[in-house]
Amino acid sequence: MAVDPTGSDLKEFLAADPEEPVVMLNLLRFAEGGRESYQRYAAALQETFLPRYGAKVLYAGDGGPALVAEEGQAWDAVVLVRYPSRSAFSRMVADPEYQEVTRWRTAALREAVLQPTSRWVDG
Predict the structure, then answer these.
(1) In what residue span(s) does the DUF1330 domain sit (predicted)?
(2) Which of 42, 61, 68, 115 could form a cystine bridge with 25, CB 3.0-4.6 A?
(3) What are the structural domains of the chain?
């Protein structure tokens, strides 16, 4: 199952306007005992890396039973993070210090969706 973006994923992500603000949707399915490891990662993210790159958690919460979804599509947690630009996200994931703590995220997750979203234009 997918957990981390690949180099080609990031290249495609940056092919859109690299200075466009982005809200990243994170859907998380924890490995057994992974919630604690993810919380360690999330603390480092909020204390160090999000401020460093001008990003902010907009929402983080536990997933409940899905009201509308195919079997197996419920998620353990949902996180929305706003980045000032796609390039800010890319610089963060390339940061050597970030790469040291992202191992906690990788170990914590059985499966993840990391989907960039863009604001709809009015009219």
Answers:
(1) 35-110
(2) 115
(3) 7-66+74-117 (3.30.70.100)
